[in-house]
């Protein structure tokens, strides 16, 4: 499961010399959502069953069985539960350097521009897209090779991921990527939130980070994330608390206080409403 308490994810996926990993995930079975974040690696989400919601930048769309989402380095994204629904998906995360290094023509033309944001890919493939069957077959090959781990499986994984990227590039839907002022501002705010979520925060404090009035900030934040700032902050703190419950032996009271909750009774109620279980029961999972 990914570290949901970090808005810029820095977790090492796979081995240093083979930076690749695959995670089977379920929303809400494993967690109710993957909060808005970004990372410097490539991330693919292959929806296996059910439906959910995916946010890319400021845009949200339904995620349905068979859909493939492509998050290039630096792309803000989030995954959420659709009301009353469950979504199972494979999360494939790898560093672009896995596919080509220095003095490599492919790295120069494609991988480095993808890494730096000078080149982007379509954020979503559906079964209706022309290259879908071939692209999905590449990801299934990655899954099978990773599961079996036969001698040479690393070459299979690398080859299938290269073919997957080649298929996307061949569609001609890539474009020069340009991060907007709004997404840059949102990343700055999320970094600030990551550093200060344990403190008593007001809407005015967050608005000041963005140089907005409180009223303009509240409208802007909802437009960018689909949530109010207060609801987003509360979910962020709850996710941080859930991670601490599984990673430390600290008391529930200590964790609640450290994550910005001054009232233990309120924390317990909010936690159960969010995760469907009490903090103590969650710790035993």
UniProtKB/TrEMBL annotation:
Entries under InterPro entries matching the protein: AraC-bd (IPR003313), Homeodomain-like_sf (IPR009057), HTH-like (IPR037923), HTH_AraC (IPR018060), HTH_AraC-typ_CS (IPR018062), RmlC-like_jellyroll (IPR014710), Tscrpt_reg_AraC-type_HTH (IPR020449)
Keyword Cell cycle carried by entry: no
One example GO MF annotation: DNA-binding transcription factor activity
Alphabetic keyword roster: DNA-binding, Transcription, Transcription regulation
Entries under Pfam families matching the protein: AraC_binding (PF02311), HTH_18 (PF12833)
Positions of the HTH araC/xylS-type domain: 187-285
Superkingdom: Bacteria
Protein name, as recorded: AraC family transcriptional regulator
Organism of provenance: Faecalibacterium taiwanense
